[in-house]
Each structure stands twice: as structure tokens, then as C-alpha cells.
Amino acid sequence: MTRIAAVHGALAPHRRAQHEITDMVARTCLPEDTDRRVLDRLHRSTKVTSRHMTLPLDRYGELDGFGASNDVFIAAATDLGAQAVRGALHAAGLTAADVDLLIFTSVTGIATPSIDARLVGRLGLRPDVKRLPLFGLGCAGGAAGLARIHDYLLGRPDQVAVLLSVELCSLTFQRNDASMANLVATGLFGDGAAAVVAVGADRPGRPGRPDTIAGPTIVDSRSHLYPDTGRVMGWDIGDTGFKVVLDPRVPDVVRRYLADDVEGFLGDHGIKPKDVTAWVCHPGGPKVLHAVTEALGLPADALEVTWRHLADVGNLSSSSVLHVLRDTLAGRRPPPGTPGLLLAMGPGFACELVLLRW
Questions:
Q1: Which stretches does DSSP call E strand in the chain?
Q2: Known catalytic residue: 281?
């Protein structure tokens, strides 16, 4: 099995209260003299109290087109990604030269050379490090990236792999777009990054390092792409960049499919949902979290860590579920040997499940 050695989260530099961001969105997205009560209601309904932004709020109105936003993404994602990877390697008691595989996932900007390539020299990674940039997985990217790391380390159990997620969602907010999808997205999504260091089963440990995180092991993973849901979530890409596709049916899709997926996956390992001692769930938004709780029949406090993350920093797309994993490890850890389930959903529409053992 794959062992998670460390998880480190990083957040964009400018923290702002939700009402400040709402004011910025009103200035940049709504036509002049428009009644903003719908915007205010939508932003309050997200249950987000603050978020971290890549730029000062007054800079967003100055971004002129996709090119300008993407240039900011490349520079900021490289900086924030380096911070996240350095923190994770330090916590794991490893160096950059130990890394054999670097997976990078994002859905909020594009770069060639990719962000992972730009980090090799900056972090001191070996020039023969294997790299795998992933794009298009959206909020499911953190879970899917963990699953692909597990697949890799099963075949190379003496190696070290790093997953890096960087999502700068604020750079995708569409100016002069008063659509419901854009107004919801501008109230929900924030900017952040996370890195996970994982080691194969045969990788020797580093004794005597008190800062090393004794993380869970990854047992297995499962993906499920749902039929006829291609327009439920994603991007329409045009001259102004990434325009969000966000169908209000997302909670209905969760209710329809998730329970069968989770029960079938756990059942293949002789586990029932009641046996799971920690649910590491992506914070898709209040309606989605209520749908997850309802579909799986979870206790009211089962997603407490996820709700807290949503309130504190918003939805960080693929980075969020990794922050929730970090917070689960940093808080009251589940009993050793018990099962945990990490889950996230994203464009496709698809679900990614990762079975953990604490």
C-alpha cells in the first residue's frame, strides 16, 4: 500500500472577508445601477465567511482578457506551488532530490512549459524526475491525483511521489457577466494550493524525525463517470477565458448516484459506510454537502471539517479535499487501523473515491 507521508496547504496572499469580495464582484460583474440583492443573497448562501485572493481586490477590474489573467496564473501558481511542495517535503523529512514523480493538477490556468516543469529547477528536483500535468479534472483533481500516485507507487514501491494542486479560481471570474453561474462561482471559490508527499510500501522511513507525519495508507481507488452529465459542470472557453458551467442539478446528480458508488466500493473491501471513521469530503458548496450527507445517511457532524474549511477559505477546487485531509490529520485523528474515505466530484460529471486506512 501507499503511505501518505505529509500534506501541506498554502493559501494565496490576500485574505478578504466575504462582503468585501461581494462588493468587488458587484463593481466588476454587474451592469451599472443594477439591483445587487440577488448577488448579495447568493454570496451569503455559500456560507463562506472569508477567502484568499491572488491579487488585491482593486486589481481584478484591471485584468484585460484571458492572456493577462493567465500570465498572473503562471507567475502566482509557480510561487504558491513551490511553497506547498517545500512545506510538504519538509514535513515528510525528505528532500527535493528524493522525489521520483511529480504530478501537477489545476483547472484555473494553462502553461507550456507546465507549472511542474517550471518548479524542477526552482525546487532542486532531479532533472530525471517524472512529471505528469493533469488538466480538466476540476474539483475532483485532488482525489484523482492521489489515486494516480497510488497506481504509480504500486509498481514502484521503493519510490517517492508528490502531488501538487494549485487553483487560482479568482482569476477565472468573468467581468461584466451577471449570469447566475458566474455570480455563484464568484461567491464560492477561492485561491490556494496543496501538496501531498507519498511513499511506496518498500520505501525506508526516516527514523528520529519528530516532524514526520505518520499519515494514512491508500488502499484502493475508484472513478465513476456519470452518463449524460457533460454540461453539469465545467468551462466554456472563449476570448475572456474560462466561463463557468455550473448547473443547479449538481445536488440531484449526487443524490442519484453517490450512495451506490460508495456502498459498492466499500463493500468490495468488506466495509460498510458505518465503519468509516472519517469522511474526507470536497466542499462543493452547501447544497452539495447536504446532498452528500443525505445520500450517504451520515451523522450531522460527519463533514464538520469540510464545513469549517468551506467557511474559512471557500472552495479551492482540486486543492480543497487535500486541505480537508490535512486538517483531518492535524485534528483528532481517527483510530489507527480504521477505514477512511476521501471523495470529490468534478466535471464529467464524475466521482473520485480513495479508500484510506488510518
A1: 2-11, 14-17, 50-53, 101-106, 130-135, 160-168, 191-199, 217-225, 233-238, 241-246, 278-281, 339-346, 350-357
A2: no
